[in-house]
Amino acid sequence: MAVHTDDPRWLAWRRLRSFQNCFGRLSAVCLLLAVLALLDGLQGVMRSGTEQIDLIPGESEAVSGSCPFKNPVVSDVRVTFSPAEAPLRFAFEAFFEGYWVGNGMWRGQVVADPGTPPGTWRMRVNFRGASLPPGVGEYVVRVFSDAAERQAASPSFLRRYFGVNAFWPFAVAVGMGIALGLATYLLGRRIFHLQARMSLCEIFRTSPTGAAPFMVWCVAQNGSWLRPGDRFPVCSPEGERTGRAVIRGMEKMTVQLEMEEGTAAVGCLVDLDPQG
């Protein structure tokens, strides 16, 4: 026996439910892809370190660090390369205040001029009269012959095989996941109100004890006329009747029913139509 299948609102409910399920799955897939992109970016940074700089001839990259004392001057900056004859240069730019704690910072550019041969060198930025801890101000500069060689050497899967920074797929996937999740939520609200107009409430929890009888719970938007002992048919999401339930208790909008006959699962509907 079918329930409400001849009601145009039922067809609209089925269509909205289909869209909601589709959007929900797509949202989950997008958020999963975002997590994978984030993990790929993090493992790439962990394997290469923030002190590794990859360049090709003709490129430069900005670097910065903290100053060991107040009021430094440009002549205090000491930059050394290892080996000393490294075909690189450091272009100092400025001192500035830190973004977070206000400490003095320095900023400059590591430059690989056109014609720089491929290789790996070390650079250390120090200050006259200062003794920095090991590793502070030290960088590993790798120069590749071209962009393809640099891409192939990247520890990031996305950069190595697709040539993109992991941040961009992460940002796009998160944005799409949030938008689809919001659409899923808004569709859920429309579905809930449409169910209420058809006197249907959706089962969101079951407490099976084997065969009937067992308890089910649903939410009724307007159940002021419902009373314990009232009996109503239960149908599947496809509209086929699967059993009958009797109200055993009510708390605010939550209705507790006992399945007297048939079967029911999460997602099934209780037909609360007093004429049904």
Describe this structure in words.
With about 280 residues, the chain is an alpha+beta fold. The protein has 3 domains: about 5-50 and about 145-195; about 55-145, Immunoglobulin-like; about 200-270, Beta Barrel (Elongation Factor Tu (Ef-tu), domain 3). It is about 30% helix and about 35% strand. The chain has helices at about 10-50, 145-150, 155-160, 165-195, and strands at about 50-55, 60-65, 75-80, 90-95, 105-110, 120-125, 140-145, 200-205, 215-220, 230-235, 240-250, 255-260, 270. The protein has a 6-stranded antiparallel barrel with strand order 8-9-12-11-10-13. Helix 1 (about 10-50) packs antiparallel against helix 4. The longest helix is centred in the first third of the chain and has 41 residues, at about 10-50. It starts with 7 loop residues before the first helix and ends in a 5-residue tail after the last strand.
